[in-house]
Write a structure and sequence with these properties.
It comes from Cirrhinus molitorella. The protein has about 575 residues and is an alpha+beta fold. Helices cover about 55% and strands about 10% of the residues. The protein has a six-stranded mixed β-sheet with strand order 1-5-6-7-9-8. Strands 2-4-3 form a three-stranded antiparallel β-sheet, covered by helices on one side.
Length: about 575
Amino acid sequence: MFILGISVTQAVRRVIFSSSKLRMTLQNGSVISAHNCSSTADKNNNLRWDLTPEEIRHQTQRLIQRIKQAYDTVGSVDIGKVCFENTLQVIANAKADYAASRHVLDFPQYVSPCKEVRLASTEADKRLSDFDVEVSMRADVFQRLIALQEKQSGDLLPESERFLGRLIKLGKRNGLHLSKDIQEEIKSISKQISELSIDFNQNLNEENTVLLFSEQELVGLAESYVNGLEKTEDGQYKVTLAYPHYFPLMKRCHVPETRKKMEVAFHSRCKDVNTAILEQLIELRARLAKLLGFSSHANYVLEMTMAKNSENVEQFLDELYKRLRPVGEQERQYLLSLKQADCERRDLEFDGQLYAWDMPYYMNQVEQVKFAVDKDKLIEYFPLEVVTEGLLNIYQDLLGLTFQQVEDAHVWHDSIKLYSVQDSVTGEEIGQFYLDLHPREGKYGHAACFGLQPGCLGPDGNRRMPVAAMVANFTKPTSSWPSLLQHHEVETFFHEFGHVMHELCSRTRYAEFSGTQVETDFVEVPSQMLENWVWEKEPLRRMSRHYKDCSPIPDSLLDKLIASRVANT
């Protein structure tokens, strides 16, 4: 996803984490000081993460004025004198400037530790999204693009021609070929949709529900999980709805009522306020689609994909359902048999039903029963620092790159790491990326890659260096216990980092196509291909090491893990 998204025995075990055991040492890499970075790195990554709320507001206004001036310039060109230089190139430069300048303003809403900054960033996102609608509805600019296409399309470079065609296609999807009255209604609806969507996400990011459970209510969970939880004065455990708390509990807790409480709470986050937003969005999207000549919002969205329309999607799903239903029914019966046996073993009533809070728990049992995967043992071989070291080394080897951690880097939180990426043959710096891997209050709750600066040509014709951030919510380390990953979290890490590499390795002329700004049908393909490495022995060995003695993962455990890939599929 880019944009869809990760403690030990209290007194008995004494573990000393020697820096020589878990220190990250990248092959062909090193650690460099921010002060000693190449001048290219200093010059090309000017992203600031220390802006005050007032500075965010001021820079937002300046950015809007600057980009509006560029579009005003295009809109004022004599129709008969349009050319690549005074129309398409001006828009391209404006888009590159906008993409490079916007994210220091709207990205902090997802990651800043300061609530005031997050709120200011959210407001900036609203203003910029409102401005996006204004720009997308510039009929004067659209008319000049049409004129350019009629006049000069065949003389353009292939990427320039694609850029021009895309702008015209998006203009028609915004109704710029329709009457002025309809355009104004579309603009109003689009602004409402944008603001409501931002509010919806902000509500989820700021959600901080805590559930309280006794030790008996958490039976089945690993010691590392339970001992990593905060406790109240009366000895109850605090469980949040963050991924590192939610997923392990749903998979491992033996107490159905605990799983039910967690499941209901997780899927009821911001229920009242966000339900009202969803109801408004459904109505607004339907109105917008109708104004644009589509029978539904689904058909409006699907027009830009390979599926083209909802009828094709429905036909595909219907055929898939017919073929998979017999298999699905067999698996359902098997899960029910596991539940019945579990209920008998724990003296619980078996009602012959599978509930939402049962599915993760019994699907996890499938892996244990059919493939004998010992999750408690397996997790000990995936300390986050070891996984990170192995993952970065694998990507370096695969793509011919060298990663260097930047010391004393300018970041938004002291847990963040910044890396410089060089071509291992030429030594050219091709990009930089941030790793923000642990949960904290107000932070984006999933795992995703955020493109922060596009890798495209600037107005001077020189290539701008792409910058991206991977944001995740893996369990925090404690003073006595490292951050240990479940295998599915290793897979998530590998997948999202694939998006980071897509952002950095992309070479395009225009910001419009930089990094993951590709066709919707393709955007997940590189990461889905790359994540296959986490199911192969050699890469798994490179990404694993026991957190205590650095011993390799046993072949027997590795074989069972790899065989379990087909579980619940």
